[in-house]
Amino acid sequence: MHHLSEEMQACIEQCLKCYATCLSMASGHCLEAGGEHVEPKHFRLMLACAEMCRASAHLMLLGSPQHRQSCAACAEICRECAEDCERVGDMEACVAACRACAESCRAMAA
Amino acid sequence: MHHLSEEMQACIEQCLKCYATCLSMASGHCLEAGGEHVEPKHFRLMLACAEMCRASAHLMLLGSPQHRQSCAACAEICRECAEDCERVGDMEACVAACRACAESCRAMAA
Amino acid sequence: MHHLSEEMQACIEQCLKCYATCLSMASGHCLEAGGEHVEPKHFRLMLACAEMCRASAHLMLLGSPQHRQSCAACAEICRECAEDCERVGDMEACVAACRACAESCRAMAA
Amino acid sequence: MHHLSEEMQACIEQCLKCYATCLSMASGHCLEAGGEHVEPKHFRLMLACAEMCRASAHLMLLGSPQHRQSCAACAEICRECAEDCERVGDMEACVAACRACAESCRAMAA
User: Considering only the top CATH level, what class is C6-109?
Assistant: First the structure.
């Protein structure tokens, strides 16, 4: 990844971290906790956020200028996921990862 | 997929078809042809388009309302990929799949 | 995909169909139904099966001889997913897609 | 990811690192270098390895016991990719990431 700018390398790392956090918390925490954690709206958003982060990391790893489009979409979805995880509660790691990724993606999309 | 609207099912199919066409043509046609077909800008766009189509299909399969963001990004990337495949030439199947997917995604993003 | 053998094209289609069926039923049916449908073991297996089908389709679309490894893994995971969906019940579309994909992948792995 | 074993967390990191290294080197190094670096066999193996690493990380993040199947496939594909990158030359980062990932996946598959 050393041919990519430092800012882009940092955004790739935020995206992969947010992907890993959302997916592992959905599967390892939400499915075990049940209740509000598996309400369809919340759970789908977690999985959608994981996928969008993964795709944005992929376009940046490719070095494709089209990462601007995916990062813009990713920033918005991460923002919504952070809000929803805060609403549900007991999802601090996810809130933090989504916020950091949203900020980084917003900068990359500009 | 029967709980999803017919329009969304059709867009999922366009996205998966465009994903499969871009990836298999990049690997099976462009790598064999060489020359302009493996110029970095073109080849990266093919792989970026494949990934974005895959991600948009994923969000629609999840039934996530956030597919609007991914479909907007996908419509734009497919449009650029169709144009670039037309420029390079001998990529008709890819041009057609990208155009159809761009149109379908644009409607889903609205 | 026309440069790929007919058998491989058919297996790619089975994998993409099984991916789409598992993911959309997990999100659109299991999350709505609740109860046994969101027990962690079952839900994780649905998502794992979707991912493995997606990856196997990807390797075949690339025309990579390494699809033998991914198809062998995919055949086994689809077999387990079909069994578990039968146990939980009311998942006929998933059982059928997993069985067909398992059989097709087993043949491609040989 | 804190509910997963330390060994599994380490393997997830190796898989994501190998995915990122293979994909970014294929796109940022091989496409620029041309020649042997874009010979179909080599380039497809790089992309296949990236995808299989991504899928194995995914199954481990889900906490799915089926990661045994994907890690077994991944270990074998990473071994082949390391060898092929060594043959082509000037791919040290990829050789190292593939070797480390193969070893880690082999242990997780056992």
Answer: mainly alpha
User: Which one of B43, B45, B51 makes the best mutation probe of the D interface by having the most chain D beta carbons within 10 Å?
Assistant: B43
Phi-psi region of A21 (alpha: psi -120 to 50; beta: other; left: phi over 0): alpha
Percent of chain C residues topping a pLDDT of 70: 100
How many Å separate Cα A94 from the centre of its chain? 9
Q: Cβ separation of C52 and D54 shorter than 8 Å?
A: no
B55 touches chain A (CB under 8 A): yes
What is the rounded CA–CA span in Å between residue B96 and residue B29? Answer: 16
Classify residue A90 as left (phi > 0), alpha (psi -120 to 50) or beta. Answer: left
Q: What is the largest CA-CA distance in chain D?
A: 46
Q: Provide DSSP, A15-69.
A: HHHHHHHHHHHIIIIIHHH-GGGG-HHHHHHHHHHHHHHHHHHHHHHHT-TTHHH
Residues in chain D: 110
What's the confidence (pLDDT) of residue D44? 98
Instruction: Output the DSSP codes for B10-47.
Output: HHHHHHHHHHHHHHHHIIIIIHHH-GGGG-HHHHHHHH
A-contacting residues of D 11-40, CB under 8 Å? 12, 16, 20-21, 23-24, 27-29
pTM here? 0.98
Tell me which chain D residues have a C-beta less than 8 angstroms from the C-beta of C72: 69, 73
Domain residues of chain B, as ranges? 6-109
Q: Which of residues 77-96 of D touch A (CB under 8 A)?
A: 93
CA atoms B39, B42, B43, B44: torsion sign = positive
Q: Is the complex ipTM more than 0.90?
A: yes
Question: Considering only CA atoms, which of A26, A91, A31 is closest in space to residue A53?
Answer: A26
Q: Grade residue B3 by pLDDT with cuts at 50, 70 and 90.
A: confident
